[in-house]
Every structure is written in structure tokens, then in C-alpha cells.
Amino acid sequence: MAGVIRYTFTGVLTTMGALHIGSGSGGLIGAGQPATDAAIIRDREGYPFIPGSSLRGALRAAVAQYAEALFASDDARLREDEGELNALREGVEAAVKSKAVTMTNEEAIQGWLDTELSALERLFGTVFWASPLTIPDLHLVERVVGKSDGEIRHGVGIDRDTGAARESIKYDFEVLPRGARFAFLLRCELPTVDATRLKTWEQMLALGLKLLQQREITLGGRAARGVGQVKLEELKVYKLHLSPNPKHRADLITALLAKPNTPQGTLEPGDWVVTTLKAMQGGS
């Protein structure tokens, strides 16, 4: 029976160095503190947070870097430039025209994209396809007044012609210091209708999580200055089958009766990331 597997990944994302995710403006970094040219983003209560969109973009880019070497070309394709997207758009329009007599435009578009988009594009989404990934904003594990204050870093503008500092071009920016801990949550609902494609998606998710565990993904701005290193810790993986199969009924009811903010599903034993990646060594 076809259905959906819902994966829920929880953990802690820890800053291994300074982190700057800008608010887009300057301002005070805290009560009684000086103003800065570029403040970090904060929630309505004044605490720093990591936008889920920032993590999604960094995760997508990192997985795409490895995908071409690890997965089949049809699975690893990621069309991003204007020419590639225009070609894809033309293909959608052609599919609609060819199927307009027998089905609605929406059915024609979805049916064509289902076979045309790569596994990577379907996992992280495109302008034509909604991603099954959900990454909420990451908020501090410990919201303690004073402990989440930022620090000021200084810089100077560089003359691109001479490579020297430009006169009268000095700026500063705020960073969150090393050791800040953010609650990590990622959910993904994967259809089980195609076992091969499902395995590829699981492997791509495991790849992204492993890169986060190994500090291979940086977040925010000022990366050239060594800012933005993070590490995923305390990862737990939960799996829940959303299918009409009677054997999963008890798990579904348990998930519905669970306390609020409790990860739904069964905790996967062992190291799910390592087990999933090791399966790729045998080509399985």
C-alpha cells in the first residue's frame, strides 16, 4: 500500500565560532550597549535566532555540491540559472498543451514534473515544486538575559584596485559568540510509492545531516572571515508511517495522543545517518 513516511529530526545546533545572520539594519546590540552598523537578527523578545530559510539554503547548497559525485546524474541535477529554468518552464507549457484535452492543466503540470524533476530538485523544491522539507526557525535552547548578547567585530572597506584599505571606510558588525545552542528541528514527508526514489531521498537527507555534524556547513554572512561555523549535536531520528496499512494504525494513534511538542513516530535505533550512508557503499 502506498503512503508517506514522515521523518522528524531533532537536535541542537551549536555555534563553533562567531555567527552573523544580519537583520538588514543597524541598531543597539543590547540595553546600555553601543550601536552597530549591522545587527544580528532577533525575535520579538530580543533573543537571536536562526531563520529556517537560512539553514535550508545552506543545506541545499551543501548537498548539491556532493550530489553529482554520489548520485546518478538524473537524481543530482539542480537547475538554477535563468536559461535552465526557462527551458523547464517551456517544457511545462508544452506538457499542458499536449494533455489539455484529457486532463486539467494542474494534473498535466504535476504529472510532467513528477518525471522531469530530479530527486534533488524534488527534495529541496524549485519554483515549480514545493519541497516536502519543513525547517522552522531555530531558537535558543537557553533564553537567558545577558548570555545571548552579541559582540562587535570591526572591519574596513578594501579598494578593489589596490587591495589596500580604503580611506574613511570603517564599519562594524555584531556577531553571536561561540557556544550558543539552538534547538534544531527538521521534518520531511516522503512518498513510498517508489522505493528506489525513497532510498535516494533518505540518503540525501543523511548526507546533509552528516555535513552539519562535521561542521562542513556555514551559516550567515562574513564567511570569508571565518564566521558562521556550526555543528549539529544530539541528533535523534523519528519515523512515522502515514499509510492505510493496518499495522501502522497503533503508531498513528500513539502519535496523535502524544503531548504537545513531542516528536511523532518511533525513535530510530543506532546511528541512522551512518547506517543510511553506509548502504551507499554497496550501491544499494
Description:
- α1 (52-70) crosses α6 and α3 (82-99) packs across α4 (105-116).
- This protein has helices at residues 52-70, 73-76, 82-99, 105-116, 119-124, 195-213, 249-257, 272-278; strands at residues 4-15, 27-28, 35-36, 49-50, 133-134, 138-139, 151-158, 165-175, 181-191, 230-242, 266-267.
- Helix content is 33%, strand content 24%.
- It has two domains: 4-78 and 118-278, no CATH class; 79-117, no CATH class.
- The chain has 284 residues and is α+β, with helices and mostly antiparallel strands.
- The protein starts with a strand and ends in a 6-residue tail after the last helix.
- The model has no long low-confidence stretch (mean pLDDT 80).
